[in-house]
Amino acid sequence: MTAGPASAATAPCRQYSYGYGGTGNCVKAIQGIANVLSITNAARSEAGPVARDGRFGSQTQAAIIKIQRAAGIAVDGYVGPQTWRALCYYGAFWGHDMQAKADYRWAKSYAC
């Protein structure tokens, strides 16, 4: 499933659902937030870190599944309304990796 806006200014990423095979800047934002969340919920060792390449592949899907389990929401590997809420609400930067921090800040401002 893939859909996406031309820019976040015209249609926020949260208005769309993303899954395996999806592409674009909203997927890149999902990956940036997932990388930070995976640091705080121990999913990183199992599912990540996820490449911020804008392609929703198996690594991204595995990270999303771990995040969904940790958040106690339906586990389907897709980023829909519930998962967007978890990504945008629980997303927080912890650590000293300045690139991850910059990626996270961009992702939150772009997608959430």
TrEMBL record:
Cross-referenced InterPro entries: Peptidoglycan-bd-like, PGBD-like_sf, PGBDSf
Pfam entry (one): PG_binding_1
Membrane-spanning residues: none
Peptidoglycan binding-like domain: residues covered: 50-87
The protein's name: Peptidoglycan-binding protein
Taxonomic lineage: Bacteria, Bacillati, Actinomycetota, Actinomycetes, Micromonosporales
